[in-house]
Amino acid sequence: MKTQISKQNAIIILENVMKQQTLIHRLQKVTDGAFDEYCGGTKPIEVLFNVDFSKMSGAEYALYFEFFLKTVEDESLSFRGKAERLYSEYSRINEIRKVYN
């Protein structure tokens, strides 16, 4: 049985992911990438959007990951704004994936 998570709760989870990843991204800049092993923000995305990054093609993975990094790096958005952007875009991508899979 699959757990249903409301959009509101998913955004809260993604907001926390954005906080963590933004901190890690900033620490990487200061330490020249020494915090690479702490980049664990993808598991909540896999669960929330029912995707498995390990089974994706390189191009499909790049689509998710590039958007994720661009969102993390966007300093014009609040953490909640980043979470809402991720939720919206990943939901759209998932709808497209359903058509082709």
Entry summary:
The chain has 101 residues and is mostly helical.
How does this model look, in words?
The chain is mainly alpha-helical. 70% of the residues lie in helices and 0% in strands. The chain contains 4 helices and no strands. Helix 1 packs across helix 4.
Instruction: Please give the radius of gyration in angstroms.
Output: 14 Å
Order of helices and strands: HHHH
What is the helix tally?
4
Instruction: Classify the secondary structure makeup into a structural class.
Output: mainly alpha
Shape: globular
Runs in which pLDDT lies below 50 for 5 or more consecutive residues are none
- What percent of the residues sit in helical stretches (DSSP H or I)? over 70%
End-to-end distance, in Å? Answer: 21 Å
Q: Give the DSSP E fraction (strand runs of 2 or more residues).
A: under 5%
- The total beta strand count reads 0
Q: Describe the sheet with the most strands.
A: none
Average predicted confidence as pLDDT: 84
Entry keywords:
single chain; 101 residues; mainly alpha; globular
Topology:
Elements: H1 7-31, H2 42-49, H3 58-73, H4 79-100
Helix pairs in contact: 1-2, 1-4, 3-4
